[in-house]
DNA sequence: ATGTTACGGTACCGACCAGTCCCACACGAT
DNA sequence: ATCGTGTGGGACTGGTCGGTACCGTAACAT
């Protein structure tokens, strides 16, 4: 009775090559359970493949972690692209769009915070291959935010971008421990205030 | 020649009872290497004692983690006490004092961020004994910050306290990845701006 | 002197870890 | 038909993990 035509989870993604399935599984498990809390066997199992295939493609757990974060960084970057595209000549609205994007991400159920921040907490070794991915992503994000602040004509764009970064990161952290309520609205309000504060 | 009178690290703290030495070792190792990255054997070694003694006192690694965080929370609380005492009838200065306190903590070399946030990233299990310690601490800190905002006569103290919390948490996160410069000054500036923004 | 207690030391357990190896099978190209 | 390649399956290694049990001893109270 279990072998009906209804495709199970493993079969739904069975059409993708093993490499993509492994990355999907890593995405899900690393984010929800933590990197060190997930063994490569568990990743291979959820991907419907084996450890051998995993090591054939990535060579190392650390490399898999780095590649996973690289994909997440690309997703963030394309979200930024969409925001810049949508409010093409209104940098102020772009900044608000970024804040709204983060606020939306907060409502994801059982939110575990920013994958980069969590990974940073789990990987204290500065030579870990994932570290440069994280730092590059954060630096790039700050650069884009700074460019938006420049475009918005803010008096001190670097300062404003830094403060907005604090707000966004802080909101993602605060949503993990349930102390602060209505985090989404409040981070948007704070970013708005920062824009107004530095505005022309 | 190695058994001179110069006391080694183990002897410097040898006067403290084993329980305190274990907690000191846990503090150091858990914070710098991460909870899951440190074995109980390593904690016992650095404490100059044995795993047996560690388990006699704490029963479980998880319990040791919880007790460590309890101590850190108490240290934060007493720092808040000192700040409230120092600017006894100037709540606005108290808030700035909190921001300066956090900013000072950022300059600690090889800063690994807030132990509570890092632990949260490492302990996704909501039933972990350390989780309630973390949540209680964060809630308490927000409550005290809100009280300061009330005392300062801010228009919307809950909102202001939440935004200040975002700023402080975000600064601690941002200092881990070196993307943002001058984090200390900037978080103080942001908190100042929030006060002014909500102020009467 | 005697008993109690906490201590340091160590051997040990079962479980899990990252990583390796070999095998049988399905496929596509020639 | 044959070959090479990537695959899923599983056994295996060496090491580390959290946690337990046992022992001899030093400190202290009585």
Automatic annotation (TrEMBL), chains A, B:
The keyword Thylakoid does not apply. Keywords: DNA-binding. The keyword DNA-binding applies. This is TetR/AcrR family transcriptional regulator. Residues 16-76 form the HTH tetR-type domain. Coiled coil: none annotated. It comes from the Bacteria. Residues 39-58 bind DNA. InterPro entries: Homeodomain-like_sf, HTH-type_TetR-like_transc_reg, HTH_TetR, Tet_transcr_reg_TetR-rel_C_sf. It comes from Streptomyces flavofungini.
């Amino acid at each position: 009775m279990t072998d009906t035509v209804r495709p199970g989870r493993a079969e739904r993604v069975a059409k993708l090559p093993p490499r993509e399935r492994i990355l999907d599984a890593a995405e899900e498990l690393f984010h929800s359970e933590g990197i060190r809390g997930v063994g490569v066997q568990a990743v291979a199992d959820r991907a419907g493949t084996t450890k051998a295939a995993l090591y054939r493609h990535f060579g190392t757990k650390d490399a898999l972690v780095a590649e996973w974060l690289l994909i997440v960084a690309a997703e963030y970057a394309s979200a930024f692209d969409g925001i810049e595209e949508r409010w093409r000549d209104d940098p102020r609205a772009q900044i608000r769009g970024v804040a709204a994007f983060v606020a939306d991400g907060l409502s994801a159920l059982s939110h575990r915070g920013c994958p980069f921040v969590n990974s940073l907490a789990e990987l204290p070794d500065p030579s870990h291959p994932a570290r440069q991915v994280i730092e590059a992503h954060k630096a790039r994000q700050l650069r884009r935010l700074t460019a938006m602040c420049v475009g918005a004509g803010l008096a001190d764009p670097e300062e404003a971008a830094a403060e907005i970064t604090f707000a966004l990161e802080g909101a993602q952290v605060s949503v993990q421990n349930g102390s602060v309520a209505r985090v989404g609205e409040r981070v948007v309000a704070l970013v708005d205030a920062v824009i107004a504060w530095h505005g022309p």
